[in-house]
């Protein structure tokens, strides 16, 4: 239903094998990208914020303009909203209600803004959205130009405040994700600068193979999601989006995938598949 921290080793290894020998930007052609996205409808974009140019794109059948559910990438604008409203600070502690989640053990404890993003903790998001309120969230989504801005949730369930982003009504295209992220790192959103600073800080993932720092968020979901958690045989959606500090230059990247056909044998979440593909491309593009 959501982004997870668990990495499917087999999927990651197959992606890395596909990318073997590709260490320079010149080697990354459309044929190579097509091979990486085998089995998925997918999109990848890399934008140089410093030169204001799209430097790499994989966009078959205009996939990058197609909206899919935002899933846990919504934690990025939600964090901006919460920090901007003063509802949370970097020292905030979100109290766990004691309900054990067997699938995500890292959720079974109190959380901070940093761990909320790191472990993609859904229950923290579901504490924050009612506090912000649907009217204020709608205002933010409008000024952010964030996807279809539909926070109604599942049809007939009146659950928008707690489920709109979870394989539900709130959808966004990769192009719209890119534009939103560009506004974040250029401080063009109508929010307090500190809200952006805190949000970005908590998205830090580490360094690419060449030493460039990167910040990112996964998002995972299923088409025809089941609230009961039985998603076997359903088509997966996956996101990996973020920023890169490459010396004096800043980059924004967006990657997404959707299964072309069900793969019941695979236990990987969509966000981790998209992450593996994106990191392979980024490490190949920037080299060592």
Write a structural description.
Keywords: Hydrolase, Signal. InterPro entries: Beta-lactam/transpept-like (IPR012338), PCN-bd_Tpept (IPR001460). The two termini are 35 Å apart. The longest helix is centred in the last third of the chain and has 17 residues, at 270-286. 43% of the residues are buried. Helix 1 runs parallel beside helix 10, helix 3 (75-85) crosses helix 5 and helix 3 (75-85) packs across helix 9 (193-201). It contains ten helices and eight strands. The protein is globular and about 50 Å long. The protein has 288 residues and is of the alpha+beta class. It has a single domain (9-286), classed as DD-peptidase/beta-lactamase superfamily (Beta-lactamase, 3-Layer(aba) Sandwich). A six-stranded antiparallel sheet has the order 2-1-8-7-6-5, sandwiched between helices. It is 34% helix and 19% strand.
Tell me the fraction of residues in β-strands, as a range: 15-25%
How many domains comprise the coordinates? 1
Quaternary state of the chains: single chain
Tell me the CATH superfamily: DD-peptidase/beta-lactamase superfamily
Strand tally: 8
Helix content: 25-40%
Low-confidence stretches: 1-26
**What's the overall geometry?**
globular
- Give the SSE order as H and E letters: HHEEEHHHHHEHHEEEEH
What's the CATH C level?
Answer: Alpha Beta
Q: Classify the secondary structure makeup into a structural class.
A: alpha+beta
Largest sheet: 6 strands, antiparallel
Biggest sheet: strands side by side, in what order?
Answer: 2-1-8-7-6-5
**End-to-end C-alpha gap:** 35 Å
Give the C-alpha Rg.
18 Å
Count of DSSP H/I helices: 10
The CATH architecture would be 3-Layer(aba) Sandwich
pLDDT averaged residue by residue: 90
Question: What is the CATH T-level topology?
Answer: Beta-lactamase
């Amino acid at each position: 239903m959501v982004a997870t921290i668990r990495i499917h080793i087999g999927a990651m290894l197959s992606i890395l094998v596909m990318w073997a020998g590709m260490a320079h930007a010149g080697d990354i052609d459309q044929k190579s990208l097509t091979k990486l996205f085998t089995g998925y409808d997918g999109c990848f974009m890399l934008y140089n914020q410093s030169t204001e140019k799209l430097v790499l794109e994989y966009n078959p059948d205009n996939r990058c303009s197609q909206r899919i559910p935002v899933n846990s990438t919504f934690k990025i604008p939600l964090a901006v909203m919460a920090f901007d409203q003063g509802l949370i600070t970097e020292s905030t502690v979100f109290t766990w209600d004691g309900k054990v989640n067997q699938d995500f053990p890292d959720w079974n404890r109190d959380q901070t803004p940093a761990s909320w993003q790191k472990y993609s903790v859904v229950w923290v998001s579901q504490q924050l959205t009612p506090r912000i309120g649907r009217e204020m969230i709608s205002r933010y989504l409008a000024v952010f130009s964030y996807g279809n801005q539909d926070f109604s949730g599942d049809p007939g369930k009146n659950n928008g405040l707690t489920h709109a982003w979870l394989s539900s009504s709130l959808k966004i295209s990769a192009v719209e994700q890119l534009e939103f992220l560009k506004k974040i790192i250029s401080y063009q959103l109508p929010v307090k600068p500190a809200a952006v600073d805190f949000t970005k800080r908590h998205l830090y993932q580490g360094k690419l193979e060449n030493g460039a720092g990167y910040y990112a968020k996964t998002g995972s979901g299923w088409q025809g999601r089941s609230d009961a958690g039985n998603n076997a045989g359903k088509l997966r959606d996956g996101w990996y989006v973020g920023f890169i500090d490459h010396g004096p230059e800043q980059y924004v990247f967006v990657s997404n995938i959707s299964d072309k056909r069900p793969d019941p044998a695979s236990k990987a979440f969509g966000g981790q598949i998209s992450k593996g593909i994106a990191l392979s491309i980024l490490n190949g593009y920037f080299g060592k």
